[in-house]
Structures are given as structure tokens and as C-alpha cells.
């Protein structure tokens, strides 16, 4: 990690700081999106569970083929919505990155100082590691949030089909 160069460009550290700030803002934006998705999905889940409770005799005691279709579609819709809710919850999960990090940083700083590295080298290494960790966290959150949005979309299509068949059930 130590370099023998006497003059180091300050721009490298500034670029890493800027990249760290950008990744931190992306992480904050993703957390906000996760929170909003989770809140919306929770409200919709509560409403659909309430609907299932109110119409439980009609929904959970099917006798005609159309009623069986309604039950299956309701269950598929709820399954997709619960999966979307779970992926939004996973995206909000805070990674345990601080545990043990302080000891490792102190140990690395002492090791690098013994090796004759400068404070600039230590800062450069710290920012590089932090940017890599943030990028990995953002990637993991993005994957879970994308899964949540996809499953939420699928549940919306099941809801549309449920309402369409429910309308046919009422008209027939």
C-alpha cells in the first residue's frame, strides 16, 4: 500500500471522497424508496387481508368454478404481495459492517504506520475500502428492491384479474 512517490496528487483523495458522498446519497435514496414501498405494500396487505376476512364465506368456501378461480387468484395475489413485502424488508436491512471494523482499522493503521506509510496512504486506503463496501451495499439493496417492484407488479396484475373475475361473478 505504501508508495515511494514523494508527491501525491490530492485529486485522487478528493475523487474518492466525492465517490463516497455519491454512494452515500444513493444509499439514502434507496432506503427512502424501500421505506415507501414497504409502507405502501403494508397498507395494501392489510386492506386485502381485511377484504378476505369480510368476504371469507364467499371467498374461502368455493362451490362453482368461477369461485375456485377467485380463490386461486386471491391466494396468488397475496403470495406475490407478501414476497414483494419481504424483499422490500430485506432491502431495508442494515448490514452489520461496523462490528469488528474499529479493531481492524486500528490494527491496520498501526501496521501501516510501522511500515512507514503516510496519513495520505491511510486515508486513501480507508476511503477505497469504504467506497467498495458502500457500492456492495447499494448493489444488494438494488437487487432486493428490483425484486420487490417486480413482485408488486405481478400482484397488481393478479389484482386486476381478481377484480375482472369478481365483476363477472357479480354480473353472471
Index terms:
single chain, 172 residues, mainly alpha
Tally of contiguous helical segments: 5
Low-confidence stretches: none
Report the principal-axis shape.
rod-shaped
Kindly name the structural category: mainly alpha
Major beta sheet summary = none
The helical percent reads over 70%
| Approximate strand percentage | under 5%
Which oligomerization state do the chains in this entry correspond to? single chain
Instruction: Give Rg in angstroms.
Output: 26 Å
User: What is the arithmetic mean of pLDDT?
Assistant: 82
Number of strands: 0
Q: Terminal Cα separation, in Å?
A: 76 Å
Put the structure in a nutshell:
Helix content is 84%, strand content 0%. With 172 residues, the chain is mostly helical.
Description:
- The protein is mainly α.
- The protein is 84% helix and 0% strand.
- It contains five helices and no strands.
- The protein is rod-shaped.
- The termini are far apart.
Produce the secondary structure layout.
Elements: H1 10-54, H2 56-59, H3 65-92, H4 101-114, H5 119-171
Amino acid at each position: 500500500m505504501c508508495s515511494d512517490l514523494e508527491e501525491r496528487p490530492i485529486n485522487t483523495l478528493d475523487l474518492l471522497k466525492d465517490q463516497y458522498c455519491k454512494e452515500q446519497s444513493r444509499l439514502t435514496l434507496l432506503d427512502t424508496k424501500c421505506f415507501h414501498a414497504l409502507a405502501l405494500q403494508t397498507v395494501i396487505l392489510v386492506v386485502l387481508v381485511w377484504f378476505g376476512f369480510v368476504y371469507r364465506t364467499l371467498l374461502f368456501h368455493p362451490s362453482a368454478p368461477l369461485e375456485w378461480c377467485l380463490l386461486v387468484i386471491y391466494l396468488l395475489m397475496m403470495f406475490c404481495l407478501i414476497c414483494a413485502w419481504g424483499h422490500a424488508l430485506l432491502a431495508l436491512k442494515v448490514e452489520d459492517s461496523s462490528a469488528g471494523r474499529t479493531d481492524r482499522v486500528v490494527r491496520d493503521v498501526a501496521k501501516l504506520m510501522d511500515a512507514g506509510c503516510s496519513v495520505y496512504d491511510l486515508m486513501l486506503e480507508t476511503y477505497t475500502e469504504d467506497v467498495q463496501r458502500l457500492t456492495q451495499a447499494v448493489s444488494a439493496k438494488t437487487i432486493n428492491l428490483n425484486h420487490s417492484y417486480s413482485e408488486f407488479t405481478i400482484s397488481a396484475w393478479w389484482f386486476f384479474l381478481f377484480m375482472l373475475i369478481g365483476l363477472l361473478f357479480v354480473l353472471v
